[in-house]
Model the fold of this input.
Amino acid sequence: MEIFSNLAMGFHQILSPIYLLFIFVGVLFGLVVGALPGLGPTAAIAILLPLTYKADPVLSLVMLTGIYYGAMFGGSYTSIMLNLPGESSTVMTAVQGYKLTRSGRPSEAIQMANLSSFMGGTVSILGLTFAAPLLGELALEFGPPEYFMLMLLGLSTIAFIGNTSPIKGLIAGTFGLMLGTIGSEPISGAQRFTFGSYNLGDGLPFAAVAMGLFAISEVLINMEKRAKAYQGNIEKKMKIKFPTKGEFRLAAIPAVIGSCLGFVLGALPGVGPTIASFMSYGIARGRTKTPERWENEGAIEGITAVETANNAAVGGAMVPLLSLGIPGSSATAILLAGLMMHGIRPGPLLFTDHPEIPWSVISSMYLGNIFAVVIGILLSIYFVRLLKVPPAVLNVSIVVVTMIGAYSINYNVFGIYVLLVFGVIGYFIKKAKIPEAPVVLGLVLGPLVETSFGQSLIMSHGSLEIFIQRPISAGLMGLLIIIFCVCLIKPLITRFKAKTVVK
Amino acid sequence: MKKMNIALYSVVLVIAIFYIYESLSFGLWQEFGPGPGLFPLVLGFCFLILGIIQLFSDEVLKRNTHDIFLAKEEKLRIISLTTVSFLTVIFMNIMGFLLATILFIFIILKCLECYTFKQSIFTSVVLSSSLYILFNNVFKLDLPTGLLTLFL
Done:
């Protein structure tokens, strides 16, 4: 019952014109950016983050969360109509969606994507409503050693999962942690790696680093490739057509599986929407009795499987962020940074000390999801037309907007220098196929990891045994060791086997 | 590209060594617990070991590794964009945000994207002014006005 009264409190706060406006703007911006190939939810949140500095913290978070799921919604439109997936989690939407477009059913495919995204989103928000406070209560038992292990586990899984090379993922994560050590040491306050610069005293401006790594590096890649505006035909008008009742029936089970899978996998660090969408698609494809339809004219339930899963992952990803204060993805890492800039530290105490913050965010997600589906149904065709905007104009606009964002962090051009330097670093990182997400996560978690590590050692008078003496910490450490062994030793065994076969 | 990969991971090693060296100067242990240098030292060693493993991996040392960088012309575009961006920031405090970004957009569109003079000037003025009005006047972010305001 307490959950419902808290939810009512959240709704009471957000049902005011200013909140509704911020949710609407966030969702709309997310839909627009999500429709553009290359710029995903992480870049979208990073670009708008500095603009929320002057706003009320809850208002900012509500808008940034709106961008997050708005971008997830928008990712499917260009995949279905033009076979251009905006991000990795919509790749499988393009496979079935584009077949349906060629079969003359683009509108049905898009509306199914909208409705599936809505369903996935709603199921995951329901899950978030019940799971986050429960996990928060459980996390009250956690001390510094448990938090240290939990954060290491999160960082390691993000470094390992979904990357071709675990070593590259670890290099990225360690680099992020190293960047997090610049500035004041969290326990003693000693200055480190500042080289006498006053600007580095508080550490690297996180938003500038994130914008550089995700937005500027993408601009550099686009400039290098001489990206051109979409040359094909885009329909100017499209009637809104919904799938048939039979198709809805066919899509019901993939929708339920996709929503549940997306929520659970989204809550796990490093797994996120891409893996959830691929798995959900695979299950739906395996269950079908008409595989030839999937191969030829396209299966509408394939879109449902993907879109429910990748949207449900958003709500899942918010669970560890709100209840433990530990982000499981680069997008939630930026949300965490946004909260910390307003002096709010998410975690188990957030639900007891400042319940209006998490509950307003959760309530806004219910409402934002409705906004997203309505805007999506009515305007999806116009979002696809954004591809006609010349990339050169889009690129310079992104550079200028991010410059404004980086400047407004401290009203100092130092932020812009950081933005550009990390844009170049991000470009090289992308070129070398090193993942950027662990860098961002390492930077955000760095001071927290160091604090919990230091506190643990102070508690144990310098003994590392504290990490194995406490059962939860020991369990997490065991899990960490298993993950390391599986991810690092497995490729070695595979290589050894391959060499033996060649010989 | 073997050379470029080697260069990249050599930079990783140099950073790791420098980082370890610096972290030693902060002190590793204090009376009450770990000193400011302990955590960076651990990280530095992890970075060094990972860098060495990657530098000597098949991916880097194989001769037929694909070229991670493109042709000379593309490289030149990247260098030009980066240089113009840095120059824009340098001149932003003098010229102000509006003038600096108008020039930035104009140079990029005219020189790198081969837009016509009219197109470049129109796009740069319209885009820069709209963003300036939106962020400076609507969002109330005080963007740099530069020294030029002294003469106005």
Remarks:
- Chain A has 21 helices and two strands.
- The mean pLDDT of chain A is 86.
- The two ends of chain A are 67 Å apart (CA to CA).
- Chain A touches chain B through 55 residues (CB under 8 Å).
